[in-house]
Design brief:
Elements (H helix, E strand, L loop, with lengths): L3 H8 L7 H14 L1 H9 L2 E8 L2 E7 L1 H18 L9 H12 L1
Antiparallel strand pairs: 1-2
Helix pairs in contact: 1-2, 4-5
């Protein structure tokens, strides 16, 4: 895998990159990130990342944290989604909330 610098040199102006090239560049950034390497080495999982000022903060957690993170995302998708009648299923929302609460 190319380093981020080598990738940019090989692929030129990033404003002309395809979606695939952008994803490959993100993969190169992640592979070069000490936070991602530390997470992999410790058996932890990357839950997400966000900007804090000029830094990228990588959120890591355990397998259980990852499961909760995925379930929370599914709950958000359920809340935002609707049934064929155009209404969210309150039973589905309650069931998902109970699952997350354990």
């Amino acid at each position: 895998m190319l380093t981020p610098d080598a990738f940019r040199a090989a692929h030129g102006d990033s404003t002309t990159w395809s979606n695939t090239e952008i994803e490959r560049y993100e993969d190169a950034l992640e592979a070069a990130s000490p936070a991602y390497q530390a997470a992999a080495a410790s058996g932890r999982f990357v839950l997400g990342r966000h900007a804090a000022g000029g830094d990228v903060v990588v959120e890591v957690g355990t397998r259980e944290d990852l499961t909760q993170h995925i379930e929370a995302g599914a709950l958000a998708a359920t809340i935002g989604g609707t049934s064929s009648s155009g209404k969210s299923s309150s039973a589905a929302l309650l069931q998902q909330a109970q699952r997350i609460a354990g």
